[in-house]
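QUALITY CONTROL LOG
STEP: pairwise intake check
CHECKER ROLE: data steward
CRITERIA: each record must contain a sequence immediately followed by its C-alpha cells, with no blank fields

ENTRY 1 OF 2
RESULT FIELD BELOW
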Amino acid sequence: MRPSFNRILLYVKDVQTTCAFYTRHFGFQCKLQPDDQIAELISPHGGVILMVHKAAKSVKTGQVTVKLVFDIEDIEAFKAQCATQGLEFGSSRQADGYRFANAKDPDGNSISISSRSFATG
C-alpha cells in the first residue's frame, strides 16, 4: 500500500466565503454535497484538493504553520488580475531564479504565488 498526498483540510470561519475566494481568484470549482460538512475545492488544472470545513469556536484560524503555494508563471500579471478582483498581494520577491509574492485568504491563512516550478537551472 502506497500513501498518496492529495488533499489539504482548511478549517475556516465561513465555508461559503472561503470557497468563493478560491473560486474567484484561483479558478477552483466548489463541490459540496447537501449532507456533507466538508466542501471540496478542485482545480481544473489538477493538483491538491482543498477541503474546507467550518472551524469549531475553539480553533484559531490563520496560523502560520502552513502556507498554500500556487504555481504561477507570470507573477506580476496574476497579481494585477487579482487586484482588479480585490485580492492584494505583497511585494514580489526575487529568489534563486524565481519570483514569489504573499497574501492571506479570508481566514488569515497564508498563501503564496510562486514561479519556482517554472524556473530553469
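ENTRY 2 OF 2
RESULT FIELD BELOW
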Amino acid sequence: MKYPQLLGIDAVIAQLDEFDTIIDVRSPSEYALDHLPNAINCPVLDDEQRARVGTLYKQTGSFEAKKIGAALVVRNIGDHIEALWLDKPRDWKPLVYCWRGGNRSGTMAYLMAKIGWPVVQLDGGYKAFRNRVNADLLQTPELDFRVVCGTTGSGKTRLLQTLESIGAQVLDLEQLAAHRGSVLGYIPSQPQPSQKAFETSIWDRLRRFDPTMPVFVESESKKVGALRVPAALMDRVRASPCIAIELPRSERVNLLLEDYRHFVTDAPALNAQLEHLTPLHGRAKISQWQELALEGRMRELFEQLLVDHYDPAYLRSLDRNFPLLKQAQTIDLQDISPASYLAAARKLHNAG
C-alpha cells in the first residue's frame, strides 16, 4: 500500500473507529465550529497565520503567499510531530483532513508518510464529511425509539442517565445540546455547541446504536435551547411508543431545587430568565415571581412555575405531538432517590 492513502468519505466512515488518531489540521476557529468525532486539532496554520497568508494572497499574489505559508506550515507540522507523536510506533494509523481542497492536510499527510506511518487523508475534507452528515440526518432513522415523557421535574434526564449506566441505549439530546430544554434550561458553565456540532454529535450517536435494541429518548420539542433537532429524527421520535413518568409534585419541586441550584443561589440571574415569560403571563405575574425569588422563597416559586407555566405547556405539547401517549407504559416513582430511578431503569431495560 502506498501512503499517504487518499480515501473518500464512504471509505473513511466505514473505518472511522479504526484510526488511532483523527487529526483536524484546520485553524482553531474552524475546528471549534465543528469537526469529525474524536478529532484533535493540530492546525498547520492558526487563525492569525491563516489571515496573514490570506492577506498576502490578495495584496501581493499567490507566489509570495505560498512562500510564507509553506514556511509556517512546515514549522507548525514539525512542532506537532515533536510535541505529540515522537513516541508513535510504525503501525500508528492517523487520519488527516482539512477543509476541502487538501492542501493543508496533504502537506501533513505527505510528511507523515515520509516518516513511515500508514497515514490516510480524507478526500474532500470536512466539507465531504458535513455533506454526509446532512444526507444521513435527512433520512428517518430505522431505530426502535422509546420516548420518556413526564412533566417538568419528573426526572426524565435522570432516568435516561440511569438507563445508560446499566447498559441501555440512550439518545440524550439535552446532554448533546448542553441545555435542559426550558426557559431555565441553559447551563451557565457550559455554552451550547454550534448547530453543526450538535448535528454531528447526534449523527455519531445514531450510527453506533444496535437497531435490534430499543433506544430511549426524552420527549423533546423541536428546539433544545437555541438548537434545532433534525426534522426526520423528530418525526420518528414523535411516532414512537411512550413511557410516562409519574412523580408527586412535592418531589418534582425537590428535583428542581437540586437541578437548578445555580438559580437558587442567584436570584438576579433567575429573574432575568423569568423576563422571557412576560409575553405569556403578563407583567404582574412575572413581577410576583421575581419578588419570590428575591425573597428566597424558591420552593414556593418553583411550585407556582410548575402549576401555572410548565405543566400546562408541556401537557399541551404532549397531546399535540405524541399520538401514542394514550397507550404509554406508566412508571410511578415515589421519590427522587437514585434507588427509585435505578428500579425504574431496570424494569424498562429488562422489558426492552
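INTAKE CHECK: passed for both entries
DESCRIPTIVE NOTE, ENTRY 2: Residues 263 and 270 are 5 Å apart (CA to CA).
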